[in-house]
Predict the 3D structure of the following.
Amino acid sequence: MIAVTLILDSMVYSDFTVGKVKQTFGITTIEGGSFFPEIEPIAPGAMLTEFLEETLPLAVALQSEKAKSELLISPILVEVRKILKREVSFFSGQEFTVDVALGLSGICDFLMSRSREQFEVEAPVIVLVEAKKADLNVGMGQCMAEMIAAQRFNLEAGQAPMPIYGCVSSGMLWRFLKLEGQEITIDLEDYALKPIDRLLGILVWMAGS
């Protein structure tokens, strides 16, 4: 038991695999179809449309996670916040330490909270997005660990239990997860960036529902 604790003490989100998440937190995973209801597509604003027309070719050519995050993922999530009339907050490259002993610490690529507070993360945290260069499977464990941290963060802040949504994205492809209780449902359909209307509808629903 002591040895396990010492190992976990040195862990961060990026050290988690899917198996490690299940073993450490007693999580059950369910692999299946979409867990979304019928969602209306949302057309992007003119600024996002123009921005993506310029940056999409660059993002395809530049293979780094950082480039795809800045050129594709970040502007889309900012658009989600705009659509929701800034009733949610958006954080990029955010330190999000919830329980160091369990390895629930480190940097989240992106997270959104159902709070207008933009200077620090406030509960409830609702959506976490992990950027990966190509192989979405690589980011699954990390994203799951961040979702568990968000669930605990919200409960410790006195929030009622609610679904936590996660996403692993290459910018071009988006894979969604949902955490409820001790179950994480994985939508096995990888959603393409285009048509962006469909993707925006999903992201707005997750952040605003």
